Amino acid sequence: MKMEKEILKGKNLFILLSFLGVVFLGIVLLGCWYLITPRLGQLQIQLPVVVGMAFITIYLAIVALFSLIVLSAYLEKDLISAKKITVRILFPLATVIGKLLRIPQDRIRASFIEMNNSLVRSSVGLIPGDRLLLLLPHCLQSFQCPHRVTSEVRNCRHCGGCEIADLIDMCSRYGVKMSIATGGTLARRVIVETRPKAIVAVACERDLTSGIQDSYPIPVIGILNERPFGPCRDTKVDLALVEAAISFFLKAQPKPVTQSAAGEARSGEREKQWEISQHVKSHSGS
Length: 286
Ligand code: SF4
Fold this sequence. Notes:
- The protein is of the alpha/beta class and 286 residues long.
- The protein has two domains: 2-121; 125-285, Rossmann fold, CATH 3.40.50.
- It has helices spanning 2-7, 12-43, 47-75, 83-100, 105-123, 164-174, 184-194, 205-215, 239-250, 259-266, 270-273, 275-285; strands at 132-137, 177-181, 198-203, 220-224.
- Strands 2-1-3-4 form a four-stranded parallel β-sheet, sandwiched between helices.
- Helix 5 (105-123) crosses helix 8 (205-215).
- The site of iron/sulfur cluster has 14 residues, from helix 6.
């Protein structure tokens, strides 16, 4: 049982389900060929063989494509432009196979997010800081906090009651835009208005999966939140993972927190970086 968990951790589950999907596709092609063979034979004696060869060629091309996608993900090397196929074809296929095998949806989604992250890391180059967006869910904010940071992150008082203050400081250190969205609609609006070249997104399995799909072709590194108090309340995130994702896009070394950086985060200079929040606020009111 432990070994099975080990084998299916990370992106492995998604790859296994996708592989089963590809096998299933082969069986469907074989079935189609078998069903149409008598008709084809009536038309021309050699037609079943010709069509059979065409089916085999198509299927081998699919298997080769799938193999390249898996290799790209494991090696984190850009062997093939695979994100579209993964997001648009393999994920729905893996979801259907997972449902048939009664695998919890969130496990499949989490594995898909890992797969997506590997493909993004394999294919995306340097992104300027001002074109990188850190997108956060509002449930990261302390439930007790009276300050409305979703409409304006500068309202945060840096009291240390939740990780929002740390994330604000982190974005300030790297010169990255940050936005806190109350839902998918607002998140989509933020993306349309800021037109980022890449996104680091924190959310639950369901929201991250739909966010990655909706944002395509913008590359997204997804980081799952932690939910010690249940969903949508006082959630947490591993700050080291967020910093690693930002550093990846900026091709920067992690920057240590300094007094000046922390002070800068609280200064009026930050206003420029948080222009996205002002955009959202003004549009939310309209
Ligand atoms: S750190 Fe900011 S957002 Fe979090 S509880 Fe304190 S004031 Fe509120």
